[in-house]
Structures
1.
Amino acid sequence: MIELSAKAVSHPNIAFIKYWGNRDSSLRIPVNGSISMNLAELETITTVTFTPSLSADQLTLNGKKADPGQVQRVTDFLDIIRKMAGFNFFADVVSTNNFPTGAGIASSAAAFSALALAGSKAAGLELDEKTLTRLARRGSGSASRSIPDGFVEWLPGSTDEDSYSISLASASSWDLRDVIAVVAADEKKTGSSEGHGLAGTSPFQTTRVADAPRRLSICREAIISHDFDKLAAVMELDSDMMHAVMMTSTPALFYWEPASLRIIKSVPMWRNQGIPCAYTVDAGPNVHILCPASSKDDISSRLSNMDGVVTVLETSAGGPARLLEK
Ligand code: PMV
């Protein structure tokens, strides 16, 4: 029996300059560029095995059979790989995260970057990094940024060919930490795929997008020169701008919980007390606090004592998606 199999590991990433809104939602071409850092200690490991005897794709997530919606998203993605490889075999996909599921840590970036790498390799394709970032993008936009090493920029482009990601600096180039305050949420939030579709309904989106090249350039400079104060200012502004768009779309999306706002208000005070740190928030209530390694313990203990903080996770800058021995 023919068996085409490969295994890959990949990290989620946290965006300093955010992706919110597509110019082409089926190809996931974003309206603006974005910059992020891979998160080393969090990882997804995925094994893909194309098997001629299967009559449909199968997906196991953290030891459990996935629901039909999740399987469909994986099938849609594998269809792109099957087309590139020129065959029709279905696949058995087994994926595990080492971070708590349901904790609101964005898992789609790690999931689709690992699936792009393992799936393309299992299909016998030898894709270069640029092509892999374009492929991962089709599963989840931010997954494009989890393929290259360390600090990564997604160049928005305007077509499938020119919308891809590159490493700006390696993970080892700057010892930044991400201290993540996991905050309890009352309700299930609107997912990012749906959220991107609402971005254009906010009157603030045009302004946010028009100013993106300026913020990207400041962020790039801050990463290259290891200028934490510069990074802190642009990162908080960018997160606030994205949430302003979310809160003013129709329907309005409010991702912050009271504890999220308590942290957002505390971080600049801690900075004024001489502790370098800066916040950013994705499409959920958790707050990511970026800081130099020297202030991570202080931040972690302050967060642990705050009302509404369920857990605190700590991670450093992560490497690229990579293949593993089976
Ligand atoms: O890749 P998606 O469709 O899950 O979108 C990610 C959106 C944000 O996390 C809010 C921002 C970002 O750039 O990661």
Note: The longest helix spans residues 228-247.
2.
Amino acid sequence: MINLSGKIALVTGSTRGIGKATAQRLAEAGASVVVTGRSEDRAGEVAKEIAQSTGAKTFAVGLDIGSRESIEGAIKRINEEMGNVDILVNNAGVNRDTLFVRMKYEDWDEIIRVNLTGTFLVTQLVVKGMLKKRWGRIINMSSVVAFIGNVGQANYSSAKAGLVGFTKTLAKELAPRNITVNAIAPGFIETDMTENLPEEIKQGFLSQIPMNRFGKAEDVANVVLFLASELSGYITGEVIHVNGGLF
Ligand code: NAI
């Protein structure tokens, strides 16, 4: 039912986890997908894998959202080689957890710079093409911790809460141009980001999830697909929670 053929989708941080599953879903729906990661070689491998399994056109580019120079260079190449992006999924994100009293300035600064400022920079460059086309979908990856907080994540939860305000403001500014801006707040999803957490922390989370299981990257990717499609055309400024009932 969802047909994204003719659309160009850019997914940041799509070499693994939620980003990779999202790139796969969008390609399955017929979009041409730009796979990005800090390593262009790794992005190339994933782009090839997705192209082979879906038949979609893919393009790989190195894009470090912690670096303004890298972002500017990558978006220029994407525009030249693929054209203007229709669907932007601001997925790339990192955490550097430590208790607030021990949190160094660098721990705070890096997480805000990568997760929040990086998203601002990518979006500002990509939105220009959407404004010309008078069509666009922007989907920002927030987190449940933006809403409930989490011990050790003052930096990360602040960045993810910042993305909610960013989403809601952009939604208002861009709605007249037929560009929707929404966020997804995943709960506990099984990826590299959560894999190495101590078992007792994982069990603590699990006991709070009414569906009694952790989420899968595809659970989030399916919602991105919906938000990227025409089906969600009258939804903007929303946060969709994907957490099995945790919040
Ligand atoms: P992951 O660690 O498996 O993947 C993160 C992706 O971002 C990777 O492709 C990585 O290469 C990329 N990335 C990291 N730093 C980057 C940088 N400076 N420039 C470009 N790419 C960079 O994590 P996961 O779980 O797939 O996370 C995806 C998004 O979902 C992140 O924004 C994360 O904060 C968010 N999220 C994840 C949850 C989870 O339980 N796994 C829960 C809530 C939100």
Note: The pocket of NAI is lined by residues 12-13, 15-19, 37-38, 63-66, 91-94, 114, 141, 143, 186, 188-189, 191-194 (CB under 6 Å).
3.
Amino acid sequence: MSQYMNPRFSLFDAYTPGEQPQDRQYLKLNTNESPYPPAPGVQRAVTAEAVQRLRLYNDPECSKLTQKLAETTGLKAENILCGNGSDELLAFAFQAWGHQGAAFPDVSYGLYPVLADLYDVKAVKVPLREDYSIDDRDYLGLPQGLIVIANPNAPTGLSLLPRQLAHIAEENPGSVVLVDEAYVDFGGQSCLPLIGRYDNLAVVQTFSKSRSLAGARLGFAAAPAALIKDLRKLKNAFNPYNVNSLTQMLGLAALKEKEYYQLQSRAIQQARESTRDALGHLGFRVLPSQANFLFAAHPQIGGEALYLALKKRGILVRYFSAPRTRAWVRITVGTREQMEELLTDIRQIIGGIRP
Ligand code: PMP
């Protein structure tokens, strides 16, 4: 760091994104991307005309995309705000609603504590149960502030039901309950139908996972109009043109390809279940994930050792060094063939450590 850096950030730990090494071709199972390309209609949206239009500023309100999202979610445009990935919307949420503190699970998306630090939000980390599930009762009657729950949670893949999240919103009328549904399209149940029933319930979703658009950076928030106004104010204070025009077009095209994405999601869920079985047969403990990743631990090899052994063989998975997660690896579910490749290597690694 330079001598010019604000001292407030000298001890600040930023988020470490999943590695994207360029030294060789890896089978990338570390950042929960889709193994499938964006839908054909999305690919066709990248026309010469669309590129030429980059000369102009993009629509800061993402009007067409917002309208289409409103239609597909059954909400009004005033209930939707688009963001540069859902990460950006999470940042706005911490700024808008975290001034009295924020609560989230102790094992969850690593960006939450980083955003809390960045925006000087007092964080309350609510421990998961011993089995890594969220106990919804721990969230009833928390001190006022922001409550953030990834549903399904990451890196566990475990879910709550919408009615449990609704109950949390009911029992915390002084807080905003933000449900991060990055992985909901792989088998979870969305809280979108509950939007508007509670003043304090908001949802964020992303196009990065089930819609194969991680590199386009697109997410959206759905919430009562007053909460969307809060987020929009922060958006317009920070980066009014936050979603570029190509991404707006790609997002719009993606929303017209529901069947394509449902098919891919089903294939990923099938690959997830067969991989979970296979890992179970190899002695792994694997949580029953409803996301596009599996969280797995083996009694004979720690998370870091397995991560390193797989990396040496050209496969990237994610390892988290915190005490509660260091025995585990998080494996993104790819195609069936990719999962076979992973399992072949894991069999060899496990075989090598057996006496
Ligand atoms: N929420 C969770 C739980 C995630 O795992 C991720 C992906 N890292 C995100 C949000 C952010 O996704 P994006 O910014 O790509 O929309």
Note: The two ends are 48 Å apart (CA to CA).
